[in-house]
Amino acid sequence: MVKQTLTRPEEIKRVLPLFGGRQLPLSRPLIMGVLNVTPDSFSNGGHFLAFSDAVEHALRMEQEEADIIDIGGESTRPGAEPVSAEEEMERVIPVIQKLREQTDIPISIDTYKAQTAEAALEAGADMVNDISALRFDPDMAELIATKKVPLALMHMLGTPRNMQKNPHYDNCVEEIARFFKERIDFCIKNGIDKSKLILDPGIGFGKRLCDNLEVLSGLRSFKQFALPLLIGVSRKSFIGMLHPVDSPAHRRLGGSLAAAVAAVINGADIVRIHDVAETVEALKVIQAIRETA
Known about the structure:
Order of helices and strands: EEEHEHEHEHEHEHEHHEH
CATH class: Alpha Beta
Number of domains: 1
Low-confidence stretches: 1-12
CATH architecture: Alpha-Beta Barrel
Helix content: 25-40%
Structural class: alpha/beta
CATH superfamily: Dihydropteroate synthase-like
Number of strands: 10
């Protein structure tokens, strides 16, 4: 089955080039569905550890009109402990292989390890989502340059283990912009085509509530780099801070939708979310209003 979002180059202007020559148009906001194949992720940890459950959920997200499936095998919640590449690969590679047998939907591998990323690309993944922005594994830059795949560069202070221990900024948006410039320059120097890069300011990664809100309101500042913006706001703790209730993260649907809509209005090109059907509906309304204006 060929996704309607996969379009010939001559038909579109702004695109996300994928592994193997395919392209995703950026004429509308793209939906990146989250698939955590982990026992301890902050929202749905343990729900999709079973191989069949993970594949079924990915296919369900595709039916709900996700454009990309982002598969991760290591939790990056605050305080999370790292796992080995071997364990990470045991979790994600069979899922990618089986999913690729059943659909051609673009697949993103959520990892900062070059060994996992390479195995995932060989198994059928199309892009790499690196929370470290190539800072944690010295082999990742060479892999991306060689494979010529899209790469999401995310801003984060420290590591998942310590990122929420007293983070501080004098000007959050400006400091993230400087980080992006340094990382973009690093990529170019290491043979990575700038057109393959995606920028993610890292909502919830080493940021206070005020920082997260500042980033969401100031997203257009990052348009200076002329690269797609990826935003992950779904079910994050800042929503619970704004509306404190005694309920688990997966109950933060209203706040997640509001944050996703705000992000798109302020310039996001891709939103990384758990609740695909609901977010698709919300963004279709926004897109219709935009096209009418």
